[in-house]
Fold this sequence. Notes:
Blueprint: H1 20-33, H2 46-53, H3 57-70, E1 73-76, E2 80-83, E3 97-98, E4 109-120, H4 123-128, E5 136-146, E6 149-159, H5 171-176, H6 179-187, E7 193-202, H7 205-210, E8 218-227, E9 233-241, E10 247-248
Antiparallel strand pairs: 1-2, 3-10, 4-5, 5-6, 6-9, 7-8, 8-9
Helix pairs in contact: 1-3, 2-3
Amino acid sequence: MQYHEPSLQSRHNPDNHLPAYARISQSLRRQIESKAWQPGDLIPTESRLSKEYGVSIGTVRKALQELVIAGFLYRVQGKGTYVAGSFIRSKDHRFYRTHAAFGEPDPERRFTFLRSSTEPGQDFICRYLQLEEGTPLLKLERLISIDDRPFVLVHSYFEAARFPELARTDPRRFESEALTLIIEEDYGTPTMSASELCCAATALPEVAAVLQLPENSPVLFLEMLSCSYNEIPYEYRQSFCVPGRKLSRSY
């Protein structure tokens, strides 16, 4: 585990105008964002940080608490403070839960990896991912089924150069693990936030065929943008959900 920049005294430090605890917080946050520390890493103890930064343990504790509140760190009683990973920490796939009514159990789902491809990014997707127009994107296609009937078709887009081995990942992993956790574990890129847009739409012929629907059938269309540290987007996702089932979200 690498560790750098403990000094707060540099004349050129842009954080010099901040209180000591805030400068430590910014310094530690840079360690996390630069991936010097990976999700799950145990950071140095409060006493060690206190010595390295030349401040009191109380000041260090306040800095760490700020990062805990912001979601960059989490504490384990009796063990220490760790770098946080994705806000989705279950091996289950949480984005596509469905319940017929409140309090009813989630039906069993089956995940099928369909294909991967690399293509020049459409302008609007590149804009969402903060990339130049035409940047090569990796597209992953997956299908979620319930009772052997298609439920959701998912298209996920990533910058191909940023995730070079993703296309060669064993497809069985996409069927048994949450994609967010694969990205975190293989690339040190946890999901810190995700935003969604949804609307009713008409299924294109290729979508209708996969979902086993008549052409021009209505579907629920969802767009999702997932971001890692510093609100930098890394995945744009389109999902097409069959009518007649309710998506479930808990907040």
